[in-house]
Amino acid sequence: MVDENKQINKREQWKKKIMDNLKREAVKNIIARTGDLARLDAKVNNTYTVYIKNGRMIKKPSNGNCVVINGEIQG
After folding, report:
1. Confidence of residue 75 (pLDDT cuts 50, 70, 90)
2. pTM (predicted TM-score)
3. What is the dihedral of CA 30, 32, 33, 37, to 10 degrees?
């Protein structure tokens, strides 16, 4: 009986780990697709995207020339 409960507990922990990993992957995919959509939207509307990379705020027009805005980002 104790071994059976251990197996069930291990199985439940394994399922939880799998579900957590799937959720993380889903969130990563959503974030990546959001960025892709923002770039496409900027290109269609002839505007730019703004994002943070290495602690700096970057403004990127649809033509691809990057501009650093206001230097370093704090905290």
Report:
1. very low
2. 0.55
3. 130
